[in-house]
TrEMBL record:
Sequence segments annotated as region (Disordered): 20-49, 345-399
Domain DUF4037: 530-632
Pfam families with a match to the protein in the record: DUF4037 (PF13228), TPR_12 (PF13424)
Protein name from the UniProt record: Tetratricopeptide repeats containing protein
Length: 735
């Protein structure tokens, strides 16, 4: 989905009714889920500057003007200046409540742009201002806490987010009625945090609470689409709980049964509400398909994915991320169905039996608003986001990932050992698995178990704590079992031994120094140091999972490597554009024309590496991480391309098609099974694919406001991108 999946409480971005003016001056019924205002509103301002007629700060006019910017799709270039001007005007006018309104809107905008580092001071300022205004215990206070918590969750600052959500819940329990849908949405938000931090049981508990609130307050739960959306979310959370890997067979079976029941109930509600043509129903169908896949019902999964795809095509079109992801999921379900020996005819018959009018309904939906309004829109977003992931492989294979194995080992042996032997330090030690190794990226499989694999984790201490207990703690760690839950540690290679060891006890600074050369990330005023790092290094320093970090020091250091200064990111983007132009647009055709297939192949490799890197950079590493080294580059790119809302999501498939064509283009098909047709048609296809990818890159640069040029040769786009770099350091600029 192109919308911000994190904002489940869009209606709370602006202060709700019942709060003293000027907080309640805006109509909140059409607030969008990107947390930045009403993108469907027309506004009444032709200028994008906040009016300053000497009469003070007008909150209503500010909100209408912001809505108008989004309605004209000018947010990328005009929203931030407008918001910053509004801050100055409100502050100069002495309108502190109005300033708080602006800060809340700015939080939503920066979050939607993945500007998480810039958002930190906005969050802090908003909370401090709300306290200064004496708003504790009011709906306005709950609103500010929710916005701040959601922003911190989007930034990956989960501990801060959880604390803020907890404070918001404490406040909401007093200021909201027991069946207020905003309270249900808040529980839904907290469930997302638990899901993202690998706590499925807590996620399920929060969704049960949300569902109880909605059912109690609904005039007709059997036709209430908010209830349906929450049922779909609960089904996905139960599915995650069932496949967590630490359940017995009876617990897993019960969770899967309940997930199936929740998914079926969601579909029944949409049918009863006559809402089967809506995009939200497509999300519920995709959820039901994912549950069916996990339960081994591949026929049911295919049927539901097919119906979901038809509705998505009608509502969004076939060139959207939502359509592509669902189509990929359908392909995976069909493969599983074929492998199970079932027929496609059974799938079609199942679809007709369950809903013989579904094909007609898909084309006649009246709801085209993907965000919805009110609680319906806010809650459905989680279902859309979760069901857009690829079907779980749990039903096909019981193998646990290395990260899950590590977490289970930590819970079984690591945490009890710390609590027993290091009670004074347990609140200061971080645990997790980060660094080199396929399991740290989540890409491990059975082939990965031949070396450097097993139940393992890392413990990270401050330098002072490490000096006191590090050596003894390392001995205690090494004394933990080498075999855990049927998995024995495989042979350790020399590169993972000694100073290159991948688990055990580390000082925080030493751990990151071994990976990157720096104890913490260089500062924004040290661009030359950032430019000496490479993506694979940064990927190793920021991957994996942190199981516990009560002190927060490790997470802070790890996050610092994610927070690449934007000037550096733009410089990297410029360099990638240069390589794409030189290797792909310029040298591939020249080398092919010379008949030097080997050189052309190397040019295609350089082009592919540069494009794949650019996809991560344009989606912003603070949100999606960094491209790993070549071995896992495509695994990471495929995973990124499946995520909802990602830019250039279709490029991955095009790069793979390019590589498949390359053998015939470079070597005329000889020895590669292309039928001896010669290189000419394949050369044409390769060059056409390269130009198509470059055209998409230009469109994305324009969309992000990085260029206003239509130049198709990407070298010519570099000056436009570099014009946005504020730091004059020579290392950030091309010659």
């Amino acid at each position: 989905m192109a919308h911000d999946e994190d904002d489940l409480l869009a209606k709370l971005t602006r202060f709700s009714e019942g709060v003293a003016p000027p907080f309640a001056q805006a109509d909140t019924t059409d607030a969008t889920t990107d947390g930045t205002g009403d993108a469907n509103g027309t506004g009444d301002m032709n200028d994008t500057n906040v009016a300053d007629d000497g009469a003070g700060f007008d909150v209503d006019e500010f909100l209408h003007g912001l809505d108008a910017i989004f309605a004209r799709h000018e947010a990328a270039t005009k929203a931030e200046p407008y918001l910053l001007d509004a801050m100055d005007l409100a502050e100069n006018a002495g309108d502190l409540p109005g300033l708080l309104t602006v800060l809340n809107e700015t939080m939503g905008f920066y979050r939607s742009q993945s500007r998480h580092k810039d958002n930190q001071w906005i969050i802090q300022r908003a909370i401090e201002l709300a306290l200064r205004l004496g708003l504790e215990g009011t709906e306005a206070w709950a609103t500010t806490l929710i916005n701040a918590a959601t922003s911190q969750r989007a930034a990956g600052n989960y501990e801060q987010a959880e604390e803020l959500y907890r404070q918001a819940l404490d406040c909401a329990d007093h200021v909201y009625d027991a069946d207020d849908r905003r309270l249900a949405a808040l529980h839904n938000n907290l469930s997302m945090l638990y899901g993202e931090t690998d706590r499925p049981a807590q996620a399920v508990a929060e969704l049960r609470e949300a569902l109880a609130i909605l059912e109690h307050g609904s005039p007709d739960p059997d036709t209430d689409v908010d209830v349906a959306s929450t049922c779909a979310n609960l089904a996905l959370a139960l599915l995650a709980e069932a496949t967590a890997g630490d359940n017995d067979a009876d617990t897993t079976s019960a969770a899967l049964d309940e997930a199936r029941a929740c998914a079926s109930r969601a579909l029944a509600i949409y049918r009863a509400a006559d809402a089967e043509g809506s995009a939200h129903y497509a999300s519920a169908l995709a959820t039901a398909a994912q549950v069916a896949f996990a339960c081994g019902d591949f026929t049911g999964a295919v049927a539901r994915y097919e119906r979901a795809l038809a509705i998505i095509g009608a509502c969004y079109g076939e060139h959207t991320d939502y359509y592509r992801v669902t189509e990929a999921n359908l392909g995976k379900a069909r493969e599983a169905l074929r492998a199970a020996g079932a027929s496609a005819g059974e799938a079609a018959a199942n679809a007709r039996d369950e809903n013989p009018q579904s094909a007609g309904m898909a084309g006649s939906g009246t709801t085209n608003d993907a965000t919805g309004s009110g609680a319906a829109g806010t809650m459905t977003q989680a279902s859309e986001a979760s069901s857009s992931t690829a079907p779980s492989d749990a039903a096909a294979s019981p193998r646990r990932s290395g990260l899950q194995l590590a977490r289970d080992f930590w819970l079984a042996y690591g945490r009890p050992m710390l609590e027993e032997r290091y009670p004074d330090y347990v609140g200061r030690i971080a645990a997790g698995l980060v660094g080199p190794g396929s399991e740290c990226f989540g890409f491990d499989d059975a082939l990965s178990e031949d070396h450097d694999f097993g139940a393992r984790f890392c413990l990270w201490l401050t330098d002072d704590d490490y000096a006191r207990i590090g050596e003894q703690l390392q001995r205690d760690y090494e004394a933990l079992p080498r075999e855990f839950d049927g998995v024995t540690r495989s042979a350790t290679t020399p590169r993972a031994s000694g100073g290159g060891r991948r688990d055990g006890v580390f000082p925080i600074g030493g751990f990151f120094t071994a990976l990157t050369g720096y104890a913490s990330a260089p500062g924004a005023d040290e661009p030359h140091r950032w430019m000496m790092l490479d993506e694979a290094t940064l990927a190793n320093a920021t991957n994996g999972r942190v199981f516990a970090d009560p002190f927060g020091a490790f997470s802070k250091a790890r996050q610092s490597f994610r927070m690449m200064p934007d000037d550096v990111r733009l410089a990297w983007i410029s360099r990638r554009l240069g390589m794409i132009a030189q290797a792909g647009q310029y040298n591939v055709p020249r080398m092919l024309a010379r008949g030097d297939g080997a050189a052309a192949w190397l040019c295609i490799d350089e082009f592919t590496m540069a494009v794949s890197s650019l996809v991560f950079l344009l989606n912003n590493p603070v949100t999606v991480g960094y491209a790993p080294y070549y071995k896992w580059r495509f695994a990471a790119l495929r995973a990124l391309s499946r995520r909802a809302g990602m830019r250039l999501a279709g490029v991955c498939d095009e790069l793979e098609a390019l590589l498949r064509r390359s053998s015939a283009a470079c070597f005329g098909g000889a020895g590669f099974g292309e039928g001896g047709s010669g290189a000419a048609p394949h050369i044409e296809a390769v060059e056409r694919t390269i130009e198509a990818i470059c055209a998409q890159i230009v469109e994305e640069l324009q969309r992000q406001g990085l260029t206003d040029s239509d130049a198709d040769f990407l070298e010519w786009q570099r000056p436009y991108v570099e014009a946005h770099i504020h730091d004059p350091s020579p290392c950030l600029h091309s010659l």
